[in-house]
Write a structure and sequence with these properties.
The chain is of the alpha/beta class. The protein has 13 helices and 6 strands.
Length: 347
Amino acid sequence: MPLQIIRNDITKVKADAIVNTANPKPVIGAGTDSAVYAAAGQEKLLAARKMIGDIKPGDAVETSAYDLDAKFIIHTVCIPWEGNGTDTLDVLSDCYRNSLKLAEELNCKSVAFPLIGTGAYGIPHDDAIGVARDVIDAFLQEHESAMKVILVLFDQESLAAGEALNKKIKAYIDETYVAGAVVNEYGLTAEDVDSLSVMRRRRELYSREISGIFRPMNVPRGEKDPARDAEKTFSRKVFEYVDDRGLKDSELYGGKYERFFPRQTLSRIRNDDEYHPKKYICVTICLVLKLDLDETQDLLMRAGYSLSVSRKADIVVRYCIENRIFDYYKVDKLLEDNGFGGIKKLV
């Protein structure tokens, strides 16, 4: 069941579990914490909270929900935003991850989160909502969970942050899709333009090494021969990237990619030089390898595909790659949000 984002007061949301941004000490904090205590019954909740004691950053514990329309309150603790915020975002990820695990252990069918850390802790809204969506989406995919997860945004700024990326993508789609109409005037398809773009890029690379139609006889050690590179199959090129990046095969499958890119697929790519997997698997590989758009188009063309400017789903993927959004679940979610059904629907 996908993540649902709403604008509301979290104390008025009906769910099996309500997540509270708690003070690490058993005292009433500000913001969401204060509102949850007031709605649940301050004396009862504070007494239960004192029995728990201190909570470490990133951890999650439960109490009864008392007067709230819920079964449990899950209390989790974040830390203030400092410096570049790396440590804070790591703890924030733990807050969501551990709260979700606890909700699952409590057999909750639904859980509602506030946008953790954007009040007194000062986490920027864009970063906060990005972490929330990434962790929640990954959890739901990895656990194949039927639990309903609600992200409750209280203020307009939070809601705007959640909509900003999709607005950028819609604008990018509109701008890029115009190319399809332009190329039609010249009797070309958008796929022709994509192919020409990649071929032009290859010619630029070849020109450094090739004069006329002749391939250089001696290529210095450590440098790639572009003519030979052009002859490489999809399979050979994938594992060239894997080797160049010092990756292991296991980093291309398993874990969160297991459902989309199983071990058997990778084995077939390695053992069958002429194997061309489905487009969504090719795109997943490009995301895992963090290829730029030229590299992605080049690799896809070796398998008989492209990211076209005439297909709007492809345009979303192009946008993600150009903006270095390589997380599978984020790209998958953006495709869903824009009505294209996710990466597995790419054709």
